[in-house]
Amino acid sequence: MANSFYPPRHIYYDGKPKTASGSVFRSINPSTAQPLADVHTASHSDIDAAVHSAQRAFHAWSSTPPIARSRILLKAVQILRERNDEIAETETQDTGKPFSETSTVDVVTGADVLEYFANLVAAGGLNGETTQLREDAWVYTKKEPLGVCVGIGAWNYPIQIALWKSAPCLVAGNTMVYKPSEVTPLHAQILAEIFTEAGVPPGVFNVVNGAGDVGAYLTSHEGVAKVSFTGQVSTGKKVASSAAAGMKYTTMELGGKSPLLILPDADVDQAVDGAMMANFFSTGQVCTNGTRVFIPEAMKGPFEKKLLEKMDYIRPGDLMDMNTNFGPLVSEIHYGKVLGYIKHGIEVDKATLLCGGPDKPKAIEGMEDGFWVKPTVFTDCTDSMKIVQEEIFGPVMMILTYKDIEEAIQRANATPLGLAAGVFTRDLNLAHKVIAQLEAGITWVNTWGESPAEMSVGGWKQSGLGVENGKRGLEAWVRNKSTLVDMSGNVPTVFSKL
Ligand code: NDP
Question: Where does the record place the Aldehyde dehydrogenase domain (predicted)?
């Protein structure tokens, strides 16, 4: 894959790129470890300028009729779709995810969500309720925007996360300051330019680059009304407590250690397909990964045999080749972390290594220095192992066996996290009974991973607060105003006479 070198990234506000005055870091192509772009960090005064730009834009944007906002944002959807492949190529270089994924999932699902929310508000999605209290009195409610909102993104689905946050934010009449992960920052300015080209007024969508300290400054900024965060549980706790100190609204989309339950009557072939998608898509760097795969004891042999056959279908290679379906890990730091877990699984947890492991995979020409790992499967795992308890966020599957379904459900729920869960079975009655008992906000039956715009998604327990997408996803970006109107002419008072 040819390695591009992109123009430097600074900061974006008032509808155009501006020079940032903080330090410079380099964005790296993880497949080759070659530099991609110089990124200029926003200083505190740069961040203040971006927030002020969003504040200045708020009044006019929030007063624009929803249908007019919708028209502008649908134009952005059109541009995103026209530029799909070019943006996907940038995402492939920045994240290391194959073009076969970024061109069919990342930009597509981001544009779909923007289209969904633009259509929702155009069709009255921001309407309130009217309640007749008495013949001459009623209550009406309005959904009002919050003000300047902050979006802070993780590195695994950069443009998708940026759109899943900015779409409901902007359609509701808010303005946004968005901070991408410093690991994958290239999409942010592209999206800002697309919004501007579509007719989104200056200041409505702004970008600041930088690391955690930029996110922390934004989170505590007094000009900010809401923080929508996607990232690790530990960072999410810091962000949520800082936002709570300023009484800001929050949405937290955090990590998981999700269980996938294969029930005794499941089709083995389908179960293996589901388990592979739940562990190796995006090289395992998906928040909803189903890394704890529970299978009945009697199915262990056939499941592992089929899995080993299908592991050959994982095809690392030139990331722009549509046949490639597996890329490197996103960064050197993350590579070290994932390898550390694989070594821990072998040396300390003493799980059985079914395939993969910590050795460097066969080098791919031109990408010898990239952060490639082997897709790895551990079996004979037990619930107390570190690799079973902690989020690895890499292509590492853990197989656990169970005797009866109630036991599997109880073990599946024995985690402080509750992002996703899934079941494979031919018995749909049983599927619903099991799903009803699983403690997770996102659940699947006989499939794994699809997250359409219509589906509200969010974690339970320590995996998050609130949801993104679907009708409920809009509620996170508005506040309620209730008005009681009385036309009787009699003001109820206890002070009308002596
Ligand atoms: P991090 O928590 O490390 O970072 C997330 C974002 O927060 C980054 O932009 C980061 O900046 C920023 N940040 C870091 N410290 C602070 C701080 N103190 N205040 C404000 N912002 C801060 O997560 P990762 O980027 O490593 O992403 C992987 C994690 O995200 C996984 O746990 C995964 O499960 C989760 N995730 C959850 C999803 C969901 O919908 N539930 C979806 C996708 C991922 P920088 O990177 O520049 O340091």
Answer: 23-482
Longest dimension (CA), the chain: 95
Confidence of residue 2 (pLDDT cuts 50, 70, 90): low
Parallel/antiparallel/unpaired status of strands 130-134 and 137-145: antiparallel
Consecutive H or E run containing 89: helix 84-95
Q: Which positions are catalytic? A: 253
Shortest-distance atom of ligand 1 to CA 210: 47
Helix (H, G, I), strand (E, B) or coil at 188: helix
Distance 234 CA to ligand 1 centre (A): 9
What is the CA(242)–ligand 1 centre distance, in A? 15
Q: What is the CA(409)–ligand 1 centre distance, in A?
A: 29
Residue from 9, 26, 228, 230 whose mutation best tests the ligand 1 pocket (most atoms within 8 A of CB): 230
Q: Which atom of ligand 1 is nearest to the CA of 211?
A: 47
**Confidence class for position 3, pLDDT limits 50, 70, 90:** low
Kindly tell me if the per-residue pLDDT of 154 is higher than 70.
yes
Q: What pLDDT, in 10s, does the model give residues 184-227? A: 999 999 999 999 999 999 999 999 999 999 999 999 999 999 99
Q: Where are the beta strands (DSSP E) in 79-136?
A: 130-134
Q: What is the token pair recorded at 325?
A: 């379906």
Tell me, in angstroms, the distance from the centre of ligand 1 to residue 393's CA: 12
**Model confidence pLDDT, tens digit, residues 449-468:** 999 999 999 999 999 999 99
pLDDT of residue 498: 87
Q: Which of 358-370 are b and which e, b meaning 16 or more Cβ less than 10 Å from the residue's Cβ?
A: beeeeebeebeeb
Q: Which residue has the tokens 């923080």?
A: 227
Each as own residue / partner, the long-range contacts of residues 80-89 (CB below 8 Å, 24 or more positions apart, any chain) are 80/107, 80/110, 80/111, 80/114, 80/163, 80/194, 81/107, 81/108, 81/111, 83/107, 83/194, 84/108, 84/111, 87/159, 87/187, 87/190, 89/320
Instruction: Please give the domain boundaries of the chain with CATH numbers for all domains.
Output: 11-254+463-482 (3.40.605.10), 259-445 (3.40.309.10)
**What pLDDT band is residue 46 in, cutting at 50, 70 and 90?**
very high
Whose CA is closest to 171, among 467, 469, 456, 440? 469
Looking at residue 405, its pLDDT comes to: 98
User: Which residues form the pocket of ligand 1, taking CB atoms under 6 Å from any ligand atom?
Assistant: 152-156, 179, 181-183, 211-212, 215-216, 219, 230-232, 235, 238-239, 253-256, 287, 391, 393, 419, 459, 464
Using most ligand atoms within 8 A of CB, pick from 220, 235, 329, 330 the residue to mutate for ligand 1. Answer: 235
DSSP 316: B
Ligand 1 pocket test, candidate residues 39, 287, 462, most atoms within 8 A of CB = 287
Which pair of tokens denotes residue 410? 């109880």
